[in-house]
Amino acid sequence: MRKSLMLMVVAGLWAGLATAAPKRSTEKSLLKQRQKQEMKNFKLKIKYEKQMYKNQRLPKAVRIQMEHKMKREERRLRNRQKDERQKLKDRQRILREGYKQLGAG
């Protein structure tokens, strides 16, 4: 009875330590975290700009122009982030192929 109890306690502790161990941050996960934070900051910026201009009396043309500018900035950010992800994938693919050639050669 005591052996089985001790075994269960040790197994539980081992499982807890295994799941609590911090994961190694990969380049991909760091990139994703950074991009997520950039998008969050961008959304806040947009929110505060809209609040600022909501309290002012502006012509409709100016509001449309500002909305267009915000959309353009968002597209630019998304495209830049997409390019960064693609460059990372390309770099990883080149490294993998290099490792394969070293292993096969």
Tell me about this structure:
The chain is mostly helical and 105 residues long. The protein has one domain. The protein has three helices and no strands. The longest helix is centred in the last third of the chain and has 45 residues, at 60-104. The model has no long low-confidence stretch (mean pLDDT 84).
What is the terminal separation in angstroms?
57 Å
Shape: flat
Helix content: over 70%
Overall tally of domains: 1
- Work out the radius of gyration: 25 Å
- What order do the SSEs take from the amino end to the carboxyl end, as H and E? HHH
Low-pLDDT segments, ≥5 res: none
Percent in strands: under 5%
SS field, number of helical segments:
3
Structural class: mainly alpha
Q: Sketch the major β-sheet.
A: none
Mean pLDDT: 84
The total beta strand count reads 0
SSE blueprint:
Elements lengths: L1 H19 L6 H28 L5 H45 L1
Helix pairs in contact: 2-3
How would you summarize what this structure contains?
This protein has 105 residues and is mostly helical. It contains 3 helices and no strands.
Question: What attributes characterize this protein structure?
Answer:
about 100 residues; 3 helices; mainly alpha
